[in-house]
Amino acid sequence: QVQLVESGGGSVQAGASLRLTCKASGDTICVSTWGWYRQAPGKERELVASIPRMGQIYHANSVKGRFTMSSDSAANLYWLQMNSLNPEDTAIYYCHADLSQSPCTRIYATEYWGQGTQVTVAT
Questions:
Q1: Which of 34, 51, 53, 122 falls between 20 and 30 A from 68, CA-CA?
Q2: Burial class, 69, CB count within 10 angstroms (exposed 0-12 / middle 13-18 / buried 19+)
Q3: What is the pLDDT of residues 40-74, one digit of tens each?
């Protein structure tokens, strides 16, 4: 299994910055893609950014140029640096581990989620 713990959320004013941290543990070798998702009230969960084990980092158009996902894979740490926050960024942010491309799915789930961290941006 893979365990994910997020931290770093909070309440800020528009224009401020926050850095979210995801600490992973367990069989992280099974993970093919790490990601950050968010879910705003009344909306579906959406992908914000992702880092595949092999390939390019992806950022959603809505955050491109403001948010940056990075990682220290050796330490199983994944960050989401969020700059120039605006009220539309208010959501619960979730760390995600995708195992769907791994043979580990024979014994594990295809994905794991963290418990989420709240980000609230006031005008």
A1: 122
A2: buried
A3: 999 999 999 999 988 899 999 999 999 999 999 89
Give residue 64's identity as a one-letter amino acid code.
K
Buried/exposed 15-54: b ≥16 CB within 10 Å, e otherwise: eeebebebebeebeebbbbbbbbbeeeeeeeeebbbbeee
H/E stretch holding 101 reads none
- Count each helix (H run) and each strand (E run) in the chain, helices first: 0, 11
Q: How far apart are CA 102 and CA 87, in angstroms?
A: 37
CA–CA distance, 17 with 119 (Å, rounded to integer): 11
The answer for 104, left when phi > 0, alpha when psi is -120 to 50, beta otherwise, is: alpha
Q: Write the pLDDT tens digit of every residue in 12-21.
A: 999 999 999 9
